[in-house]
Structures are given as C-alpha cells and as structure tokens.
Amino acid sequence: MKDIRAKILSNKKTGHAYYKMVIDAPYIARAAKPGQFVQIKCGENSGPLLRRPFSIHKVERGIEILYEVVGIGTRILAGKRQGDFIDVLGPLGNGFSVPRAQGLKPRAIIIAGGIGAAPLVYLAEELKKKKIKTIALIGAKTKNLILCEKDFKKAGAEVYISTDDGSYGCHGFVSKLFHKILKTSESKFMTVVYVCGPHGMLRCIADICKERNFECQLSLEERMACGIGACLGCVVNTISGNKLACKDGPVFNASELTW
Amino acid sequence: MKDIRAKILSNKKTGHAYYKMVIDAPYIARAAKPGQFVQIKCGENSGPLLRRPFSIHKVERGIEILYEVVGIGTRILAGKRQGDFIDVLGPLGNGFSVPRAQGLKPRAIIIAGGIGAAPLVYLAEELKKKKIKTIALIGAKTKNLILCEKDFKKAGAEVYISTDDGSYGCHGFVSKLFHKILKTSESKFMTVVYVCGPHGMLRCIADICKERNFECQLSLEERMACGIGACLGCVVNTISGNKLACKDGPVFNASELTW
Amino acid sequence: MAILDIKIGKIKLKNPVMAASGTFGYAREFEKLTDLSLIGAIITKTITLNPRQGNPMPRICETSAGMLNAIGLQNEGFDNFIKEKMPYLSRLGVPVIISISGNNIDEFFILAKRLDKIKSIAGIELNISCPNIKCEGLVAQDAKETYEVVKAVRKITGKTVITKLSPNVTDVVKIAGAAEDAGSDAVSLVNTFLGMAIDIDTRKPKLGNITGGLSGPCIKPIAVRMVYEVARNIDIPVIGIGGIMASDDAIEFMLAGATAVQIGTANFVDPGICVKTVRGIENYLRKHKIEKIEDIIGGMEQK
Amino acid sequence: MAILDIKIGKIKLKNPVMAASGTFGYAREFEKLTDLSLIGAIITKTITLNPRQGNPMPRICETSAGMLNAIGLQNEGFDNFIKEKMPYLSRLGVPVIISISGNNIDEFFILAKRLDKIKSIAGIELNISCPNIKCEGLVAQDAKETYEVVKAVRKITGKTVITKLSPNVTDVVKIAGAAEDAGSDAVSLVNTFLGMAIDIDTRKPKLGNITGGLSGPCIKPIAVRMVYEVARNIDIPVIGIGGIMASDDAIEFMLAGATAVQIGTANFVDPGICVKTVRGIENYLRKHKIEKIEDIIGGMEQK
Ligand SMILES: Cc1cc2nc3c(=O)[nH]c(=O)nc-3n(C[C@H](O)[C@H](O)[C@H](O)COP(=O)(O)OP(=O)(O)OC[C@H]3O[C@@H](n4cnc5c(N)ncnc54)[C@H](O)[C@@H]3O)c2cc1C
Ligand SMILES: Cc1cc2nc3c(=O)[nH]c(=O)nc-3n(C[C@H](O)[C@H](O)[C@H](O)COP(=O)(O)OP(=O)(O)OC[C@H]3O[C@@H](n4cnc5c(N)ncnc54)[C@H](O)[C@@H]3O)c2cc1C
Ligand SMILES: Cc1cc2nc3c(=O)[nH]c(=O)nc-3n(C[C@H](O)[C@H](O)[C@H](O)COP(=O)(O)O)c2cc1C
Ligand SMILES: Cc1cc2nc3c(=O)[nH]c(=O)nc-3n(C[C@H](O)[C@H](O)[C@H](O)COP(=O)(O)O)c2cc1C
Ligand code: FES
Ligand code: FES
To answer: Is A225 an interface residue toward D (CB < 8 Å)?
Structure first.
C-alpha cells in the first residue's frame, strides 16, 4: 500500500455512460490483486474533500479504473486529461480469493451488475491465468449499459448477457439469468460465485448460492473516508461482529454477512 | 448591469506572468465604460465561493480581461479553455471620467503599476477617440513584467517605461519617472492623471498631483464580496464618509480620500 | 402547479424563500439583476436607531466554502432609512421585513414602536445575534435577555415579529423557547458563527475587527441540525438560514422542520439565486408529486 | 535548523504536530504510508471501559469542505486495547496519548487509574466532547461537570492530562477555565460540531445516527477563534484542532495561541499529512528567520 502521485496515461469515455482511466502506477500494478481498490483524490485545490474509492479494473500498462459519473468527484475525474497527475492510494482491501481445487475441479461464475463489472474483469484475467473455467454473467438496465463483454471474452470466459428491458441478451434481471445458467450447466464442478453490483442484486445472488451451497464472494460498496481502516466509517455487520469494508473487505463471503 | 453566462473566446498567457481572456458578452461590451469592472465566478461546482473582480481591459470582440495568477480563483481561471462558459456580472462601478476642456486643453497622464495597466488600456482607447493627448507611464519590477506597451502605443499614447531594477526604460519607481516627465513636458495643458497600481504607488502619485494641483483619478482595489453595493464589505474612507469601492468606485478622486 | 404559499405570523408569503438581512442591501441593489416581485419576502440590512460607521477594513475574507464578515452593522440609522430606503421598498409589492438591532432594550423598543406605524412594513426581524458588535456576549446567547427584548417589542407592535437566533450557543432550543414564550411569531436561525482568520505572512488578522461572522455552505450542516432541534421543540414557525446555495439546500432545511428559508451569502455569488431557488422548489414538488409546500415541512423520515 | 520542540505537561514533543483521536486509528494503519517516528505525538482512537459497537451505518457523509461522522466511539474496550494495540504503540518511540471516554465519572476514573500504570503511555486525553453518543448534553458543555471529570482523573494520575473541549458551547473559555482549575495540563480544541444532513430524495438523514460531528476545513475559522479566545484567558497550553489541511493552517492556529496542533480529517485525505505539516512549519520558520517554534505561539499582531 502506497500513496502515489501518478500520471494519467489516458482517460476516455467508454460506451454510453462510463469512463476508463489508465494510471501510471507501477507499484500498485505490481502489488494489486483482483478485488482490491484504490482511493483517488479527485480534485486538487478545490473539489471534494475526501478521496473516492475505485476498484482496480485491469492491470496492464498501469492500473485501469472503470467508472461512472454520479457526482462531483467522478465529474471532476472525467474532466482530467492525459498527462495530468492524481494522487492514488493503493492497493487497498483484501481482494477475491481464487478457488483452489479440492476434490472437484473448481469453476467460477462471475456475475456483474452495471458498474459492478469493474473489479470482475481483473478477476477473470487472473482466473484465466490459473486456468479455471469461468462463466461471466453481465447484467444492466439496457443494451448500451452492458459493460466489458469483450474483456470477459478475452479473458476466456463464457459470457451471457441480460438486460432489464430485454434490449440485449436475456430479458430480466441477471439473477434470472443465473438461475437459467445453473439449470443448463453441468454440476460436476466446485462452483465459486463472484458478484459485484447493486445491493438488491447481491442479496438475491447470495440467496441462490446459499440454496445451492455455492461459495459466494461479494464485493461491497460502502461510503468510505480513509480507505485504510482508520476512521471506522465503513462498517459491515458480520456474524463475527463489525468488520470494515475497506480493510477486511471489500470482498466478503456471503455466509459471513448478517445483512 | 447584467449577470451573463458567457462563452470564453480565448484565454492565453501573455508575456511572462499574465493572462488575457476574451469573453463573449456583447451586452457588457456595449454598456461598459473605462474603469468599470466585472465579477467573475471562477469555479463551477467547486472552487472559491465568491466571485472575483476584474477590470475591463478592452472592448473588442467581446470584453477582455488581463489578469495575474495570485491565488485559487485566478489559477482556476487560467485553466479555462476557449469554448468554456463562465458567469460574468457587469459592468460594475463608476469608471473614469474623461476630462472636458475648460479654458486650457486637457491632457491625460496615465500611470500604470504592474497589473494596474489592465483598466488603463481601455481608458487610453477612449481618450484617443476623444482626441485627448495622452502620455502613458508604465512601471513594473522588471522588464518582462512590463504590460501593454504596444496597446498604449496603439491607442496613440506617448509611452514611457520604468522598471524597479532598471532592466528596461527608466531605473526606479514609476513615480520617479512621473517627476521626470513633468519636468520636461510643457504645462500649457489642463492635466488629469489616471492611476492604477499598488497602494504605495497610488499614494505617492496622489501626493505629487496634489502639489501640482492636477486632478488625480485612482482606481482602488478592495476585497469584494457582492460587487454591487449590497454587502458593505468594500468600504473606502472619504471626506464625505464611507463610500463603496464597488459602487461609488472603484475610481475615486484622490482629493476625496482620507487614506 | 404546486402551492407554495406559507404564513409566518400575519405575513402571507407566496413562497418560502426570503432574502436574508445584510446580504440583499435594501433590495434596490438587485433590481436590475432579478425579478424582486418573485421573492417570498425581503429582509433589509439591519438598521439601528442611530447611524453606525461599522468596522474598520478589511471587512470580508473568504474561507473554505464560506466567508467571514465583520461589517459591524454599518447603516444610516432609522431616520435616513425611512427617508431614503422606505419609499422604494414600499412600492415593491413584496412583504418587506425590517431587521433591527439595538444596544439595549430601549433602542429595540423605540425602533419597533416607530416601525409599527409604517403600514407598508410586513414585519420586524430582531437581530439579537450579530457577532460583529463589540459588547459582552450577544442577547441571543442568553435566554433571559432574549425573553426581555422580545417581550418589549411584542408589547409595542402587532406586526409580525421574527427573532433571529445565534448559533454560538450551547442550547439553541432554550433560546428559541424564550423567544416563543415572549410572544415572537417566529424564529429565524442561524445568524453567523463567530470566527476568525490570520494571514500567516503578515501575522495580522484578516479582518480589521479580528473576529467576524462565518457564513456560506460550510455552516449548513450545523444550521440544519439547529433548525431540526428547534422545530421539534417549539410551536411557532422556524425560518432556516445558513449556507443555502440552491433549492436542494432550501428543501433540506424544510425537511428538517423549517417553514421558510432565508438566503444570505449566495446572493453575492448569484444575484438571481432567490428566484432560482423558488423555481427549484417548484420542480422538486412536481417531481415528487407533492401538492403543497407545507407537506414537506418537517418531512424528514426517521428510519 | 529551527527548534521545533514544545512541551505539553510532562510530555516533550519533538514538534507540535499530533495526529487527532479517531482519525489515526491506533497508528498501525498508517505505518506503511508515513514515517510515524516523525510525528510529534499520536492520540489514539477514544477507548471506553467496555467495548462499544458504535452507531448504525451510514456513519459518514461529505459536506461542503467538510464531513460529518457518527462513528459512535466504536472500540474494543480497555482490555482488548491493552492486549492488541498497546504492544505496537509502545514500540513506536513517539509519545502516545490515549484518548478515553466514559459514561460517568467512575468510568473516566477507572480508565485513568489503569492507564496510569502503563509506563509507555505519555498522557491521557479526556474526550468529554464526542457528540456521537446518545445522552443529555456533553460533559464539555457544562463547566461543573468538566471540572469534576478532570478533577477525578487528576487525582489518580500523575501523567499528563489533556482535556478535549467541545465547540458546541456558548462560552468555551469558561469550560477551558474549569479544566484548568481542575488541574488539566492542557486543553485541546475543538472536537467536532454537531451537525446533520438530509437526502432530499429519500427524505432520510444521511447518517444512521441522524446527527453527527462536523470536521474539516469548513470549521477552521470557528476553531481558530475559539483557540484565540481560550489561549488569552488560561495559562495552560492550548492544542489547536479543526480543519488543518496543511502547515499554513497549523501555523495559523499557533499564531492564534496554540502551543501545538492536532490533525484530524486531513489524515484521511493524505496519510502523510502530519509529517508534511512538520516540514511545512520548518520551512515557514526558515523563511521568516524564526529560530524557535515557541516564538510564533500567540504571535498574531493586533493591528
Ligand atoms: C470499494 C469500492 C469500490 C468502488 N469501485 C468503483 C468503480 O470501480 N467504479 C465506479 O464507478 N464506482 C466505484 N465505486 C463507487 C464510487 O466510489 C462512487 O461512485 C464515488 O465515490 C462517487 O463519488 P462522487 O463524488 O462522484 O459522488 P458523490 O457526489 O459523492 O455522490 C453521488 C452519489 O453517488 C453515490 N455514492 C457516492 N459514494 C459512494 C460509495 N462509496 N459507494 C456507493 N455509492 C456511492 C451516492 O448515491 C451519492 O448520492 C466503488 C466504491 C467502493 C466503496
Ligand atoms: C475593482 C477591481 C478590479 C480588479 N481588476 C483586476 C484585473 O484587471 N486584473 C487582475 O489580475 N486583478 C484585478 N483585481 C484583483 C483581483 O480581483 C484579485 O487578484 C483576485 O480576486 C484574486 O483572486 P484569487 O482567488 O486568485 O486569490 P485569493 O486566493 O483570493 O488571494 C490571493 C492573494 O491575492 C490578493 N487579493 C485577493 N483578492 C484581492 C482583491 N480584491 N484586491 C486585491 N488583492 C487581492 C491577496 O493579497 C491574497 O492574499 C481587481 C480587483 C478589484 C477590486
Ligand atoms: C456580509 C454579511 C452581512 C450580514 N449582515 C447581517 C445583518 O445586518 N443582520 C443580520 O441579521 N444578519 C446579517 N448577516 C447574516 C445573514 O443574514 C445570515 O444569517 C448568515 O449569513 C447565514 O446565512 P448564509 O450562510 O446563507 O449567508 C450578514 C451576513 C453577511 C455575509
Ligand atoms: C471519523 C472521525 C472520528 C473521530 N473520532 C474521535 C474520537 O474517537 N475521539 C475524539 O476525541 N475525537 C474524534 N474525532 C474528532 C477529531 O479528533 C477532531 O477533533 C475533529 O475531527 C476536528 O479536527 P479536523 O477538522 O482536523 O478533523 C473524530 C473525527 C472524525 C472525522
Ligand atoms: S473507510 Fe475508514 S475505516 Fe474503512
Ligand atoms: S463588494 Fe459588496 S458592497 Fe462592495
């Protein structure tokens, strides 16, 4: 974990409503694991006070983040240009744990809702390296909000899409798609589910996993101030008491959570 | 006086330490008089709370301002690009009054210290239109901080320069140059002096004018909040009590001031 | 169209947005910049019985998301106000509320008595909370003194009386209660927070008066909390003030319990902000399908 | 090289910059991000006798140039603190000051008594001013209660005792005086301002606890004023806190009369800020040719 003043290598609009920023932070790129995040100072002398957390989306030329403009911080971020410098603190948090074969061969099912795709692409790449069979389900409101289809494919995942309005892929929520996939796909694997997305979706997927006895790792988004476990602002209730999303998470095992 | 959301036509560094911004505000351009100013909102969602006052430097394609980066507001302003929009409130204040012939022919001596040149170029242009003989004395710390030499010449003024370090023109303060000019130049005119610059310089010039019995109009810079006479934050002490720099000024007759 | 009108004492306002004292001059300063007739009510710069020169310069300085001011209640005094400002104000067709302050109860009493006779004045705001005059504490820092000033004014006038409270107190509810008990028709809060700033290079205070009043968005969270506390504990209307920069902020105050709001510092940043805030509130009501502005007053949901 | 050391009670600090309680965890959180040994002193997150779960989520929200927090003093309680955190803190080689809070005088007394026995602790900060625990007012809002808590702690420990004051009061000088009279070695101010924020779309408070403490640059002008007032009126050292984001702010507090400063919220924005502030102060002293940091304490010039 380091706080780095890093150069922006590129910052471009991607798709309909998202931006992708590549940041020259070799230390963070080397140290990062899928599921970890960085804290970025969006403004310099002005702008919001606190840093903003973003998942590490890819690790290539530098680290990449994929983000949605939802407020003042992300709006300022979207205005940054190649060559500008920003303060990036990371890598932070625990990250996903990759399944290890125990008896049955492991299989990963990745489920991304909306911007929740961000941390999961990096995970898919890692799973590919580990040669773990991966299925990726991508859900969004509508066709042009579907994120990272190509990236998941490039990472060797079998990709399925669902949109709430049926404009692309399966019609309905991604949880419906998940049900469907489970019906058709073989179960000779030890399945681990990785999910990131809106709160309601996380709960829904976690419930399905519980029924099926799948391990389910979910990445939670809580409001954060420090990102390093100092402020106690990002508490998550678990069966073993208060945990911190920034330090003990952001990835939690669904079975730990008391919701 | 209007509050206008105006397009920036250009914003460029000029000389060593200053910037020039051209703003598309036809209403203000039409209504403006030399010595008046505008209040500009430098930041949008972030940045300083209050607007910042800037003299109207020229009126051509739109209105022009000439500014120095001294703090957060001007730093943000310097980062604006052609095509960006800013909120401009103006024209504000009283402006200079142009001398009218009474017996002797009028002659104007313009004295600019540093960024104080900003409002005086517009004045020189106006004086040219009125066919009033004009001498312009420009002072600065060093050569590359001398401002608007060409502009004053273009406005038909007889230009003299002084620098504190002697790197260009006369060596010493512009008040010394003023003394010198007065010695050599004829006095068959009714002289009106227009001055803008640092506080010490204003006092010094005002004293010389008093001795010589010249009318002396000076443009004062006070911290402003509203710029329209509502907050009473910009008080100037005069022989007739408290006046407001933003509304009764920024131009005051030296003889009015109690300093 | 949503119904925006509210009532403060006897004053009927066509909408809950007022211009705050000391930030809107005597309204005329804004006539070319906004449609004054669309503002709910205008509170004029605080006047005193006798003219006041105010404090030495500098009088203002900017801070993070705020500003300090130490104007020191500069004003021409009652007589000049009536002569020079009242005629214009009378013609506006908008409720005009006159803010007054005094060095003692007598001065408040005399001012209220004189104002009571002027028909075109809708109400009186008692500024017992300006931190920029040199004396031992503010009236609004003491429940008993607050009670006495309000009581004296209440006795002499049937006009709507609004008591403006200071946030520089341990328990604002207590002071609000004193104003209510003394017969105030409403309370407005907050006035500015006492603050200061020092130029570290010159080592001099940034204000001629050393200390000044802090206003602007920086104070909003504290002001909203105070309005929330007061509104739950008194029965007269509360007028929310402090850092309102847009209609969202005004709505936040109303959800916390304010019946109306006042906009101060934002007038300096955007002279059209009062009218824009009215429009923004209208849009909010429309979007949320709320018919009457009254329905959002105190409408925060405890979860 | 300028001399930066100062003394607070019996504690010798190599520089006047401390990390504020609740914003620096138990120091270990920052070990990879800054050189802890360069910080003047570290105040740990407030502990209580028994573990506390803290408040419901959300616990933080950003405001204009500030943030609200309603952590609610979540901590593992005294025993766990000693077992799990103290060993690391003891090895740091930097004065460690333990912040404590209690529901009553007894709890303060017991905690102080136990801490008194731990050699590696440099001092105790009494958090009598946390606005995030539900009870009738804060100790630090009442001079008598403040006196009593401090007195009880003073009796039981010879360690340096710092009393942390609340800004949510009418007259902070009075409370500071009570702490001084009861034998506090120093006062630190300010803790957070009680504030709140409402989401106008959901109509829900932005904090699970409804109200929370406001910190950050937005509060600095008020905090500087309070430090200025207190420093002129008491004889024990004052530690300035509130919105320090850079060394300029720290110097401003010291010119106002603070002997030392604490940095809170800024640690979240820049984990290296404490050390950077020390360097910035050094540069300032060099630039202004000041030999000892002491020479700037209370050095504001009245004009
Ligand atoms: C561990 C972690 C990883 C994240 N990764 C990504 C990512 O890869 N890409 C991405 O686009 N976003 C990500 N987020 C969410 C991102 O941090 C917020 O969108 C961002 O902080 C909003 O900042 P803002 O100033 O633009 O919005 P603000 O003006 O602060 O708020 C605007 C709205 O955004 C929402 N919001 C703000 N902060 C958060 C937050 N921490 N969590 C959830 N919602 C929030 C709120 O609904 C708020 O009303 C992540 C959050 C966490 C905690
Ligand atoms: C009527 C009027 C006309 C002006 N015309 C021009 C102009 O044409 N070009 C130009 O460059 N500047 C002009 N100024 C000064 C300009 O307004 C300030 O430089 C600007 O407000 C600084 O803003 P900032 O946010 O960059 O600096 P801040 O961060 O606010 O302050 C930085 C430093 O700038 C100085 N400063 C700030 N505001 C003022 C002010 N109002 N007057 C004097 N000094 C100030 C202070 O010394 C301060 O320490 C004018 C001021 C007035 C009152
Ligand atoms: C420059 C200035 C002058 C003020 N003068 C007065 C005044 O004369 N009387 C008064 O009651 N309040 C005065 N106030 C306080 C405002 O009316 C208002 O209560 C305060 O600024 C908080 O609101 P805001 O954050 O919207 O500005 C003044 C405020 C400012 C900034
Ligand atoms: C998230 C957070 C937690 C805090 N926890 C404590 C605490 O446990 N004990 C305490 O005395 N102060 C606590 N504080 C208050 C700070 O120590 C400090 O007094 C306050 O934040 C003002 O300083 P700042 O503006 O530099 O943050 C906390 C502040 C924040 C922001
Ligand atoms: S964000 Fe501060 S503890 Fe998690
Ligand atoms: S700047 Fe407000 S009165 Fe002049």
So the answer is: yes
